[in-house]
Amino acid sequence: MKNSTKSVAKPTLEMWFEFGSNYSYLSVMRIEELARKSGVSVVWKPFLLGPIFKYLGWDSSPFVLQSNKGKYMWRDMARQAEKYGLKFNQPSEFPRLATLPMRVAILGAEQPWIGAFCKNVMVQNWVDDLDINTTDMVLQALTGVVPNPGLIIDHAQSDVNKLRLREQTEEARNRGIFGGPTFFAGEEMFWGNDRLEDAIECARTVPVG
Amino acid sequence: MKNSTKSVAKPTLEMWFEFGSNYSYLSVMRIEELARKSGVSVVWKPFLLGPIFKYLGWDSSPFVLQSNKGKYMWRDMARQAEKYGLKFNQPSEFPRLATLPMRVAILGAEQPWIGAFCKNVMVQNWVDDLDINTTDMVLQALTGVVPNPGLIIDHAQSDVNKLRLREQTEEARNRGIFGGPTFFAGEEMFWGNDRLEDAIECARTVPVG
């Protein structure tokens, strides 16, 4: 029986996301299973939407600034969550600041626990209506996910890690990202949870470098 | 053999659309076959997007005002059209004014030729890159579709018909429409070509009044 020992690089898909972004919630909850089924590796790319919106000239989310669009979005979210079998409750605050959990996410982006942590934070925000930008909530989201949650938070709050999140947000802007979630399969950009399946299919066909 | 002579009302789905709206193109080309398969009747609701955008404080399409979003949209359109097996070429002018063909559309909204006419205009704009807001082009779009294209255009240009289009645009605004295409299944609103299938599914389950 032949058995190659060479490791074959898996195709990858970048997911640029924000804990405060409602459609990012749907993708964060769905991407791991979809990617696994297609043999695609997820590259987690946390970035802050606030500076992107400011760059576009907005002082908040378009869903806040455009009331009709916002009203529609909440109905759409409820229907979409139901379609995917996900729980959803409209948070009492929107968009929620997420600087602390986002710093943890960029610290752990290449760690095996990133998916579990991100899903925990998303459930706090979009199901349990909790203030995700607190040490208590981030500790809870890390509990059972990493051996030492307190140490992770300390590292996440280091100057060098704070800078990484700012730089990654700047990179998002430079790559033309204008909302979340955004996916990249190679240079092909896909915007929105509605394009997750297309993005994974595209990633499968992009040659691995 | 029993045979009921009572006519059973079919469920209906409203499609609010604009010839100048790129994602309306995808839905106009797709809706008739999808609705027929689901036993749903399409209610054609032409309206002008320009006044809606003005009401929102914009002097053009968001795809023009936000350059990154616009650049992305053209790539997305090419991919989406390919996915649906539709031809597509980025028009040399965007968004194209469509007042004249929109007036014809509202005149014929309840006529059996509405679908064929709308698809012809959409192909002129999104495949053949033609100026759809001219008598020549509208005549071509009506040729083979109605017995007397010239008469239809005359009626479309009547004051009472012009007023109907303005009133329907005002109704779009009052119903909270902020972009096209928008679908209504009863009071349930769905925005964008990405929601066409969900909207049809919803229409199937709305009780017919």
Question: Which pair of chains has the greatest number of interface residues, and how are they split between the two chains?
Answer: A-B, 21 and 21 residues
Give the termini distance of chain A in whole angstroms. 29 Å
How many DSSP-defined strands of chain A? 4
Oligomer: homodimer
Helix content of chain A: 40-55%
How would you sum up this structure, described in words?
Two copies of one chain form a homodimer. Chain A is α+β, with helices and mostly antiparallel strands. Helix content of chain A is 53%, strand content 10%. Chain A contains ten helices and four strands. Chain A has helices at 22-38, 49-55, 62-65, 67-84, 99-107, 114-126, 135-142, 149-156, 159-174, 196-205, and strands at residues 12-17, 41-46, 182-185, 188-191. A four-stranded mixed β-sheet of chain A has the order 2-1-3-4, sandwiched between helices. In chain A, helix 1 links the parallel strand 1 and strand 2. The radius of gyration of chain A is 17 Å and the shape is globular. Chain A starts with 11 loop residues before the first strand and ends with a helix. The model of chain A is unreliable at 1-5 (pLDDT under 50). Chains A and B meet through helix 4 and strand 4 of A and helix 4 and strand 4 of B.
